[in-house]
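User: tokens in, sequence out, please.
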């Protein structure tokens, strides 16, 4: 093989879809791994390395975990606006990974408590940037009719990091020691940076290159699957015939090329509000479990930390296994029906979860069964909000080219999702903690059950009814 041919092969591999998607998924896995990795190590860091009194450990741990989400909540819209103005994502993602590395090393060194806080803030900011950029990479490079499956697979990888982070850290700290434990995430970040430097992603296309679809659709095509909507940025995703005009809060605008406020335009659409509702409530429920399950299970079943950990695995393993399958389902039948079904199923399951008050009358079996079913039902709603918002974005950009600028608004869509999810992470512990203490775990479960039912109705009314096919 000649030098020129070898160069072409290498260049083709560097710009291959598989490598680009793999790099994005690896970065997402790393960020979620880092979020929980520090949890089992924090007591050692605070009490041994900083000689802090053990009575302050719980309060300091809560502060270090919450500051990560707070930094993300505040800076995400700014990061997304900058990302949408950048035609090439290689440099921003590389910078984000380098900042993640700096923050991780700062946390691991543990020179002072404020240095740990600064490290967590850097991790939060860089993690938010990586999330926005990587999700945009996945959407752009998934290919026609495969966004649901790619997103489902990526969410399974993300959950693997969420579940595996604390477990890996605890095992490594106990068996190998402090610095060998931190060597693993630092090595993973370095591998991320290497892959990002190797990958040669084509610059994203301007939205002005996306001609609006003028094809009229048959009724069958108007009811086709979400795979026909979630195409690459170079093609329009929805034709005018598939737009449910009655679901938009704002009046119909005339086509214009003048850029307008992204957040005003999107947040005045009831379909986007339904997407935000789905994302936020899902996050509230997940965060609420993290807050209330350990105490509740200790009180009613006298279960220790190991058994409680197994309950969290039961809750999250279904999403890891079924994520790609749910993505395939969404690609073939759309978002509205599975998402509505998911919320409708979660309503009675949340109610039943609060029924066991002790080990008698098969209370343990009922609780475990309900928890497993909640894990399965949650796969129907997980990620639906962001996918639906992408659909709406493509609809708006198809009808009104360059409305959000020449590079479009995809990164800002992921910012909406990121802010919604992090708002849920902050509200979930507060809401569930107050409700369980003031009115009891059962009444808290009833409240969450009613919220799930109301959201099922909201989703049914405002999620897209039919997703149209668009010609290449």
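Assistant: Sequence out:
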């Amino acid at each position: 093989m000649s030098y020129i041919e070898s160069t072409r092969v290498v260049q083709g591999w560097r710009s291959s879809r598989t490598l680009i998607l793999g790099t994005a998924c690896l970065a997402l896995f790393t960020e979620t791994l880092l979020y929980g990795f520090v949890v089992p190590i924090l007591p050692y860091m605070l009490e041994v390395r900083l000689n802090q009194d053990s009575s302050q450990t719980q309060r300091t741990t809560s502060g270090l975990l919450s500051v990560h989400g707070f930094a993300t909540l505040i800076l995400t819209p700014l990061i997304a606006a900058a990302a949408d103005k950048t035609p090439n994502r290689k440099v921003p993602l590389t910078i984000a990974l380098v900042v993640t590395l700096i923050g991780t090393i700062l946390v691991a060194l543990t020179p002072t408590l404020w240095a740990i806080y600064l490290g967590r803030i850097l991790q939060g900011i860089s993690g938010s940037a990586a999330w926005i950029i990587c999700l945009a990479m996945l959407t752009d490079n998934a290919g026609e009719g495969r966004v649901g499956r790619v997103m489902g697979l990526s969410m399974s990888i993300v959950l693997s990091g969420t579940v595996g982070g604390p477990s890996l850290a605890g095992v490594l700290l106990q068996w190998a020691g402090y610095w060998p434990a931190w060597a693993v995430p630092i090595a993973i970040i370095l591998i991320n940076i290497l892959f990002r430097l190797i990958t040669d992603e084509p610059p994203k296309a301007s939205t002005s290159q996306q001609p609006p679809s003028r094809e009229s659709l048959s009724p069958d095509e108007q009811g086709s699957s979400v795979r026909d909507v979630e195409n690459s940025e170079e093609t329009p995703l929805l034709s005018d015939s598939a737009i449910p005009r009655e679901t938009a809060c704002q009046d119909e605008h005339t086509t214009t090329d003048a850029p307008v406020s992204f957040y005003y335009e999107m947040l005045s659409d009831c379909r986007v509000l339904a997407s935000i509702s789905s994302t936020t409530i899902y996050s509230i429920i997940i965060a609420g479990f993290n807050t209330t399950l350990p105490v509740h299970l200790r009180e009613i079943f006298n279960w220790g930390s190991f058994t409680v950990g197994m309950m969290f695995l039961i809750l999250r393993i279904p999403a890891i296994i079924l994520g790609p399958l749910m993505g395939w389902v969404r690609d073939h039948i759309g978002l509205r029906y599975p998402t509505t079904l998911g919320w409708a199923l979660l309503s009675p399951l949340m109610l039943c979860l609060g029924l066991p008050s002790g080990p008698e009358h098969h209370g343990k079996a009922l609780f475990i069964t309900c928890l497993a079913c909640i894990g399965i039902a949650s796969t129907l709603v997980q990620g639906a909000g962001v996918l639906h918002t992408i659909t709406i974005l493509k609809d708006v950009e198809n009808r009104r080219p360059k409305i959000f600028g020449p590079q479009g608004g995809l990164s800002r869509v992921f910012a909406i999702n990121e802010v919604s999810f992090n708002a849920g992470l902050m509200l979930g512990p507060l809401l569930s903690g107050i409700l369980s203490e003031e009115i009891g775990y059962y009444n808290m479960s009833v409240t969450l059950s009613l919220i799930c039912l109301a959201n099922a109705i909201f989703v049914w009314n405002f999620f897209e009814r039919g997703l149209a096919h668009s010609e290449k």
